[in-house]
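PT: before anyone asks, these are the final sequences, not the draft ones from last week. 339 residues across everything. Please model them as a single complex and drop the result in this thread when it's through.
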Amino acid sequence: MAHQVALSFEDGITRFVRCDADETVAEASYKARINIPLDCRDGACGTCKVFCESGSYDGGDYIDEALTEDEASQGYALPCQMMPHSDLVLRVPSTSAAAKTGAAKYTAAVTGLERLSRTTAGFTLRVDDREALTFLPGQYVNVTVPGTDLARSYSFSTGPAQRETSFLVRLTDGGAMSEYLRDQAQVGDRIEFSGPMGGFFLRQISRPALFLAGGTGLAPLLSMLEQLAQQPPTHPIHLIYGVTTDQDLTHVDTLDDYVDVIPGFTFEYCVADEASKARNKGFVTSLIDSGTLHGGAADVYLCGPPPMVEAVRTHITGLGVTPANFYYEKFAVSTGSVQ
Ligand code: FES
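LR: through. Structure below.
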């Protein structure tokens, strides 16, 4: 049986290859014209060493000089030897350019435009070659703003299995995408994007997880939740979503729906504005304690603006708790980067 192998490069670009049952990851990569670093191809030199973020595999034959027992137990593996038993996500310690590849390019048609809140819009695309587009929930693409040569980065808010792909945009004055969506966008417009990119993606759920979203940082977490709706987790997932004012809230109904669909999923939201009608007023940090972190036995996934990311890190350090893993994506509205 063939499996899908995600090769996540140092520069954030991810390429996907199909690996047949009798193939090594290196063979499958070369067949797809992706030159991951290789030398001996025999498990002797260690040149091809990667880190396996998720999935199971047969590590094959190799000598200790190429991969020590300790490294293998941590999750390092040799693509010239490894054969997948499941879909894999591998971190490759080289750039995509060094592997003579790059971000894949896609064309799509706009099929939906929505004003979701005072400050948030959404758009939905039907990708021309949908079969060719693969991504990990949490990743983003670089979208060329129609009518310009400017690119802006947006995380998928839909899951990898959904036919159409959606994105959230924080509307800003003078923002290229904001102006396009406000003034010109029409259903049927053509859009190009490249990707997928980013190391912020859902890993195998092997312990409780705490999802933290600030504003449109909710998008990648929605994509992760959609994946979890398809593959129910065996550990609890709690999400805390923070916005500035009541008018910024969006997708609360969607989160409510996921509570019914994903076993063990709960969420809360908070609003920073003192005048808010929300039950929780303040920042997401006010809702994080040792209990929500399971005393450190939780993986944290955080997407929000840089001050929020820093505030959460400082807060968690102050609690004296170290999460098992801390994955985060920062986005900066002014530069239109990841949202
Ligand atoms: Fe030498 Fe894989 S290329 S160990």
